[in-house]
Each structure stands twice: as structure tokens, then as C-alpha cells.
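Need a sequence for this fold. Nothing fancy.
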């Protein structure tokens, strides 16, 4: 049986993963309207991955005798200033998700819930990869600067990266 504190922490994480999925979906849709097909494919895939992160938590919590709450979500933005801005936001968001995962791990240890602690290790590893990927993308965009040709190639690169990221899941 799961403690109320762990249940609450997992439900908070369910909401954050759902919000992440919505946020990246909004980014994907905006990028698509701007003609960045590779970037939008990458972001659509990333949004799907966040939904999978949420589902994993929902199923685990229910299996452990808790009750997963499917949350109401705030509407994400419709417009974004630029591709650079999108990926800066994505990195900031992932850093915040990592902090939240660390908080769940903390609650597990305080509650001596080693089963959930063990389950959360998948998320700890996943966050290392997600942050690293977001940092790499931001570094590339900084190098490209305002070079339109560079951005065109970057868009094509991200399309293949979306395929790789999907295979890894
Ligand atoms: Fe599920 Fe990108 O954190």
C-alpha cells in the first residue's frame, strides 16, 4: 500500500508530465505552421514521450493501491517568439521536471517507500538524457545564430533525431 504523501507526490508528477506533453504539443504545432517540419516532428515525438511518462505513473500508482488523478491542464501558448525561444523554454522546463522528480525521490526516502523509489530510478535516468539532449540542441542553435541556411539544416537534423529518440524509448 502506498502512503498518502507518496500518492500526492506521484499525482503531482502525473500533472507535470501531462503539462509537459501539452506544452511540447503546442510547440510542435506552432513549428509546423512556421514550416519547420523536422523540428515539429521532433516535438510531436517528444510530446508523445511525455504522455508515456504520465501513463507509466498512472498505471504504477493504481497498481500500488493508490488513485491516479487525471488532471485538468492549463492551455499552453499558441505563439512562440522563435525556434531558439522554443528550445530555451524546453530546457528550462526539463530542469524543472528534474527538480520535481528529485522531490518525488525525496518523499519516497522519507516515507521509506523503496518500491516507488526503485520505480522512480527510470525517471532519474531519463531526465539525465532529456536535459543533455536539450542542452545539445541549444548549443547547436547558438552556433547557428541567425544563419537561415544553418537553421534549414538544423530542421532536417532534428527530423532524424526524432526517429532515434523514438527508437530509444
Ligand atoms: Fe517526462 Fe521530459 O520529462
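Here you go.
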Amino acid at each position: 500500500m502506498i502512503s498518502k504523501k507518496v500518492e500526492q507526490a506521484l499525482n503531482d508528477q502525473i500533472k507535470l508530465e501531462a503539462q509537459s506533453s501539452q506544452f511540447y504539443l503546442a510547440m510542435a504545432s506552432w513549428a509546423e505552421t512556421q514550416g519547420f517540419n523536422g523540428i515539429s516532428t521532433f516535438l510531436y515525438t517528444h510530446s508523445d514521450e511525455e504522455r508515456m511518462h504520465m501513463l507509466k505513473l498512472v498505471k504504477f500508482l493504481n497498481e500500488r493501491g493508490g488513485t491516479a488523478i487525471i488532471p485538468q491542464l492549463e492551455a499552453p501558448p499558441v505563439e512562440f517568439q522563435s525556434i531558439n525561444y522554443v528550445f530555451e523554454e524546453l530546457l528550462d522546463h526539463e530542469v524543472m521536471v528534474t527538480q520535481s522528480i528529485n522531490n518525488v525521490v525525496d518523499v519516497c526516502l522519507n516515507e521509506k517507500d523503496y518500491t516507488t523509489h526503485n520505480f522512480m530510478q527510470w525517471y532519474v535516468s531519463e531526465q539525465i538524457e532529456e536535459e543533455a539532449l536539450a542542452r545539445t540542441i541549444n548549443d547547436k542553435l547558438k552556433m547557428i545564430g541567425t544563419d537561415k541556411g544553418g537553421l534549414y539544416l538544423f530542421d532536417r537534423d532534428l527530423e532524424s533525431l526524432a526517429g532515434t529518440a523514438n527508437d530509444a524509448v
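For context: The domain at 4-168 is CATH 1.20.1260.10 (Ferritin).
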